[in-house]
Automatic annotation (TrEMBL):
Protein name: Oxidoreductase
This protein's record includes keyword Metal-binding: no
Family, per entry: Belongs to the Gfo/Idh/MocA family.
Organism of provenance: Mesorhizobium helmanticense
Limits of the GFO/IDH/MocA-like oxidoreductase domain: 131-251
Stored Pfam families: GFO_IDH_MocA (PF01408), GFO_IDH_MocA_C3 (PF22725)
Keywords associated with the record: Oxidoreductase
Lineage: Bacteria, Pseudomonadati, Pseudomonadota, Alphaproteobacteria, Hyphomicrobiales
GO MF entry, a single one: nucleotide binding
Boundaries of every Gfo/Idh/MocA-like oxidoreductase N-terminal domain copy: 3-121
Length: 345
């Protein structure tokens, strides 16, 4: 049995607790929130009568002595939660983003290393079935090596609340999902980025609801991202809409279920090489999916076996560096090198 304390009992905690109650061998030993009544309400909702409730993470960890902490707090509080967890010899699984600044991200990753604890991030778009299929298909070489990766993200949600007052709202709140998926699907290592943000006249956000970015992912791979939080009409999937161009063909994914690829033939028709469809194989039994549930299981398996989870902090910091690099580029109007942002020494 693995005892866990969950800290941060806001709306997102429901997704964690929904997943946790499906896992045999996992017990929620404590719930922590600055608002004790909110933590008590979650305990009642999920029938966690034995869970210790508190407003101080240190106090609840002292009382419960769990093996792990689930961090669902706001990003500004993430570093304090991480340091508290590691000081109590706990492993840590945290909601995205890993941190609210490059400095805090590096500090958290380094603290996990020094403590010898497993540290991972809920970067759940990796656990989407078609993301897994695309990575496996591209790795097979069926259409050659990827060279150009293009993702569009156009949705117009009226969240209300803090998002509509955030700076860099699209890049900071959402884009990491797309950035991480791109890096994962093509095996990219971010090198540099140029990004522009703007606020359309129809926007109801304060700043940064629209952005366009071009990343060098190394090895001859370029990733372009175009997105908006205020584009009414013809909205994309929450996963975005993708075109991946490779040496001998291309792949299209609408972010839903339409996934197809074509490969070029050695026969030309006028100006163009002829192409033919090529099957993208179905999900492999070894591919881990199921969002929060899949990531929590992966995290527990890593603890039990002494291995590293896929979304470990030392890897996820590279996707977070893409976000902060894009923000810096948008603020300064220049291309930004990503290497120094992602390196955790």
């Amino acid at each position: 049995m693995m005892d866990v304390v969950l800290v941060g009992c806001g709306a997102m905690s429901k997704r964690w607790l929904d997943a946790a109650r499906q896992i045999d061998g996992l017990s929620i030993a404590g719930l922590v929130d600055l608002d004790a009544e909110r933590a008590k309400a979650r305990a009642r909702e999920y029938e966690l009568s034995g869970a210790v409730i508190g407003t101080s993470l240190d106090a609840v960890l002292d009382q419960t002595k769990p093996q792990a902490v689930f961090d669902v707090v706001v990003p500004a509080a993430r570093r304090d939660v991480a340091l508290s967890a590691f000081a109590h010899h706990c492993h840590l699984l945290t909601e995205k983003p890993l941190a609210d600044s490059p400095e805090n991200a590096r500090a958290i990753v380094e603290a996990a290393r020094q403590a010898g604890r497993v540290h991972a991030v809920v970067q759940n778009r990796r656990y989407v079935a078609n993301v897994r299929r695309i990575r496996r298909f591209l790795s097979s070489g069926a259409i050659g090596k990827p060279t150009s990766i293009h993702a569009d993200f156009f949705i117009a949600p009226h969240f209300g609340g803090f998002r509509e007052e955030m700076a860099h709202v699209l890049l900071l709140d959402m884009a990491i999902h797309t950035f991480d998926a791109a890096r994962y699907m093509v095996g990219g290592e971010p090198v540099s980025v140029y990004c522009q943000e703007w606020e359309p006249t129809n926007s109801w956000y304060r700043q940064g609801s629209s952005a366009s970015a071009a990343f060098d992912l190394g090895g001859g791979k370029v990733f372009t991202y175009a997105g908006s939080w205020c584009a009414n009409g013809f909205r994309t999937s929450w996963e975005g809409s993708w075109r991946i161009v490779a040496e001998r063909g291309s792949l299209l994914w609408d972010g839903h279920d339409d996934l197809k690829a074509e490969v070029a033939l050695s026969v030309r028709d006028g100006l163009f090489d002829k192409t033919e469809p090529v099957d993208v194989p179905p999900l492999d039994p070894a591919d881990r999916v199921d969002g929060h549930l899949g990531i929590i299981r992966d995290f527990m398996h890593a603890i039990e076996t002494g291995t590293e989870p896929e979304t470990r902090g030392t890897d996820n910091i590279k996707s977070l560096a893409m976000v902060f690099g894009a923000i810096e580029s948008a603020e300064t109007g220049r291309r930004v090198a990503i290497a120094e942002l992602k390196d955790a020494q």
